[in-house]
Automatic annotation (TrEMBL):
PROSITE patterns: FBOX. It comes from the Eukaryota. Residues 1-50 form the F-box domain. InterPro entries: F-box-assoc_dom_typ1, F-box-assoc_interact_dom, F-box-like_dom_sf, F-box_dom, SCF_F-box_component. NCBIfam families: F_box_assoc_1. Signal peptide: none annotated. This is F-box domain-containing protein. The lineage of its organism: Eukaryota, Viridiplantae, Streptophyta, Embryophyta, Tracheophyta. SUPFAM superfamilies: F-box domain (SSF81383). It comes from Arabidopsis lyrata subsp. lyrata.
Length: 337
């Protein structure tokens, strides 16, 4: 397919408004398209203007797989698709074993089973391996972010020696508009937020609920920060959404809905949610849960009109539990030019 005879500026403006998933198909059609899609100017404009079409990914058993969730049937269904391919840069025929994944605007920051760190853009198939320091400690936590909403910047820096001041809970970090938010152990009523512009931590207060026991974060449509809260020794899960994340000093929360996991599971074992997604309009939560050391995905609605359970085989990478998250493909380039 040849490129249309239009002014270059007009072509770039049109493509900047097309979802990355659709643009990916053009890369193999002709060299002109491939060259244009690698243009950093288009990448930056696309990041600002393109619609955010998210996919659902799950990291499980050393792999990352797309999955589709159909809520438009009586019994919601889950379909797992072919795993994404992350090859070792030293041995291109070897698939990398991934233990943890952190998503930031189309990029995945992955730690590997052999204690390496890589930034990966699955949409473009690009990777950037990060050299860790000699004094790196096993099971350290890493996050990816950017300054002033400019993720397409050409320079990369490793932020270390940052004073945390909190005991951060592993595998709870989410990226939202360039900054990262974590659940903390020692401060039950706050989140720890790292600002990549100031390179400092800030406090973000949670909803005013007593006896907070379990808290997990998620991002809704790349527009809102949400938190799933389980009260102590109950099976009820409350979903809260922050509606003005731009002004953290006066951050306010609204309760979206509540589900009771025990109604459908008929289980008296305490359920621990490790990751979740929500469908606000239908008031449905998709949870990756642990019950009595069994791992499963539960889909449950507020009025008990949705329910599906999908059990997992015990993963090889235990104690790392499967994690579900929204992924928005992007044209952000990470290779050095």
């Amino acid at each position: 397919m040849m490129m249309p005879h239009l002014p270059a500026e007009l072509v770039e403006e049109i493509l900047s408004r097309v979802p990355a998933k659709s643009l990916k198909r053009l890369r193999s059609t002709c060299k002109q398209w491939t060259t244009l899609l690698k243009n950093r100017g288009l990448s930056e404009k696309h990041f600002r203007k393109a619609p955010k079409q998210s996919l659902v990914l799950i990291s499980n058993d050393y792999r990352v797989c797309p999955m589709s969730i159909n809520l438009n049937v009586v019994a919601p269904s889950i379909e797992f698709k072919r795993e994404l391919s992350l090859k070792d840069f030293l041995y291109s025929s070897i698939q990398v074993d991934i233990t943890t994944v952190f998503h930031c605007d189309g990029l995945l920051l992955c730690t590997t089973n052999d204690d390496r760190l890589v930034v990966w853009n699955p949409c473009l198939g690009e990777t950037r391996w990060i050299q860790l320091k000699a004094d790196y400690e096993k099971h350290s936590m890493f996050a990816l972010g950017y300054q002033n909403n400019k993720s397409c910047r050409t320079s990369w820096r490793f932020c270390d020696n940052v004073c945390v001041g909190y005991v951060i809970k592993p595998q709870t970090g989410v990226s939202f508009k360039g900054n990262t938010y974590w659940v903390t152990f020692n401060e039950r009523s706050i989140l720890a937020s790292f600002d990549f512009t100031t390179e400092r931590f800030k406090r973000v207060y949670l909803p005013p609920i007593e006896n907070l026991d379990w808290k997990i974060l998620s991002i809704v449509r790349e527009e809102e920060l949400s938190v799933l809260i389980q009260k102590e020794y109950t099976s009820k899960m409350e979903i809260w959404v922050a509606n003005n994340i731009e002004t953290e000093a006066t951050l306010s929360w609204k309760k979206s809905f509540t589900v009771d996991i025990r109604i459908r599971t008929n289980s008296h074992n305490y359920t621990v949610c490790h990751s979740f997604l929500i469908e606000e309009e239908k008031k449905v939560v998709v949870c990756c849960n642990e019950r009595n050391y069994d791992i499963m995905i539960d889909i449950i609605g507020e009025d008990d009109d949705y329910y599906t359970k999908f059990p997992f085989v015990q993963p090889r990478c235990w104690p790392w539990c499967p994690c579900i998250f929204n992924y928005v493909p992007s044209l952000v380039q990470i290779r050095l030019r």
